[in-house]
Amino acid sequence: MHVTVLLQEAVAALVVKPGGIYVDGTFGRGGHSRLILSRLNEAGRLIAFDKDPDAISAGEAIKDPRFCIKHGSFLQMPSMLRAMAVSRIDGVLLDLGVSSPQLEEASRGFSFRFTGPLDMRMDTSQGLTAAEWLASVTETDLARVIRDYGEERFARQIARKIVEERMRQPIVTTSALAEIVASVVRSREHQRENKQHPATRTFQAIRVHLNRELEELSLTLPQCPDLLNLGGRLVAISFHSLEDRMVKRFMRTAADADVLPRGLPLREKEVRRLSRQKLKLIGRAVRPEKQEIIINARARSAVMRVAERISTGED
Ligand SMILES: C[S@@+](CC[C@H](N)C(=O)[O-])C[C@H]1O[C@@H](n2cnc3c(N)ncnc32)[C@H](O)[C@@H]1O
C-alpha cells in the first residue's frame, strides 16, 4: 500500500481542464493518477511514467482508454510524448522520491528497518545495486555522495569505515550497512540532537545517487515549460531539502522577470518575451495539514510547489 501525499491538493492544482492531456511522471501505485482520471471527461488523457517495474504492473491493471503507462524515467517524457504524437500537455505532476512499497518491501533493500539484500534500485531491470556499487566505489567518491546527497557531517568517517569493512567481507545486506554506519555515527552528540536512525542520511544519499534522482530532476524541470500549453501546470512534491531547493530555484528563475533592468518602458508582454519568463508561480509552497501527517508519517517532509505556463509573447 502507498498512502498518497497531498492527494487532493496536488490534483486540484494540476487539473484545470477536464478535456486536457496530463502526465503523472511518478505513478507509484497510482493514487494521484486515479484521482486525475476521475476529474477528466471522455476527451481527457493521462499518460503515466515510472521507473519501477512493480509500479508498471500496478498501472497496467487500470483498464481505462484515457490512460496509459510507460516504463522509464520522467526524463524521457519529451521523447516518449513525441513518439506518441503528443506535442503539448496541460499539466505534469512529479511526486518525487520513493513509494511505500519500495521502502517497505525488504527485498528492495531501500530501508535499514528491514533486513534484505542491499539493492535500492527503483528500476530493477538495469543498473548497479547498492551492494555492487559499494564494492567498487572509491573512498573519496563515497564520502562525496554521503556528504552531498545525505548532508551527513560524518561522511568522511562513514566512507572510511565502509571501505575498511568491505575488505573484511562484502557488504550485501541493509542491516550490515546500517550497523557499520551506526558504529560511526552513534555518538552521544548525535543522539541528543537527532531522533533519526543514524543510518538515515547515508541510506538516503546512496539511494539518491544510484537512482540519479537529483540529476534527472535537474534535467527534466527545464524541459517542462516547453511541453506545457499556455495555462498548463507543473506540480512538484519533494520529500527532502535538496530536491525542494532544486524545484524552488527552478520555478523562481523561470518565473523571474527581474533579469531585465527595472524601469524600461516595456509592456508586460514584452518584458516576458525579452526575459524569457515562461512560468508564473501559483501560490506558496504547500505542506500537508497536521491531520494528514498524523495518518501518514511520510507526509511530514513533503513540500508541494506549483507553477503555470504563461505566454512569452512568442507563443
Ligand atoms: C512517491 S512515489 C509516487 C506515488 C504516487 N503519486 C501515488 O500516489 O501512488 C514515487 C514514484 O516515482 C518513481 N520515480 C522516482 N523517480 C522517478 C523518475 N526519475 N522517473 C520515473 N519514475 C520515478 C518511483 O519509482 C516511485 O514509484
From TrEMBL:
SUPFAM superfamilies associated with the record: Putative methyltransferase TM0872, insert domain, S-adenosyl-L-methionine-dependent methyltransferases
The UniProt catalytic activity note for this protein reads: cytidine(1402) in 16S rRNA + S-adenosyl-L-methionine = N(4)-methylcytidine(1402) in 16S rRNA + S-adenosyl-L-homocysteine + H(+)
Look up and give the organism this protein is from: Nitrosomonas cryotolerans ATCC 49181
Q: What does this protein do?
A: Specifically methylates the N4 position of cytidine in position 1402 (C1402) of 16S rRNA.
The record's EC number reads 2.1.1.199
Cellular component per GO, a single term: cytoplasm
Location in the cell reads:
Cytoplasm
Q: Output the GO biological process annotations, alphabetical, semicolon-separated.
A: rRNA base methylation
Residues reported to bind S-adenosyl-L-methionine: G30, G31, H32, D50, F74, D95, Q102
Q: Which family does it belong to?
A: Belongs to the methyltransferase superfamily. RsmH family.
One annotated GO molecular function is:
rRNA (cytosine-N4-)-methyltransferase activity
**What sort of enzyme, by top EC class, is this?**
transferase
Name the gene. Answer: rsmH
Q: What is this protein called?
A: Ribosomal RNA small subunit methyltransferase H
UniProt keywords (A-Z) are: Cytoplasm, Methyltransferase, rRNA processing, S-adenosyl-L-methionine, Transferase
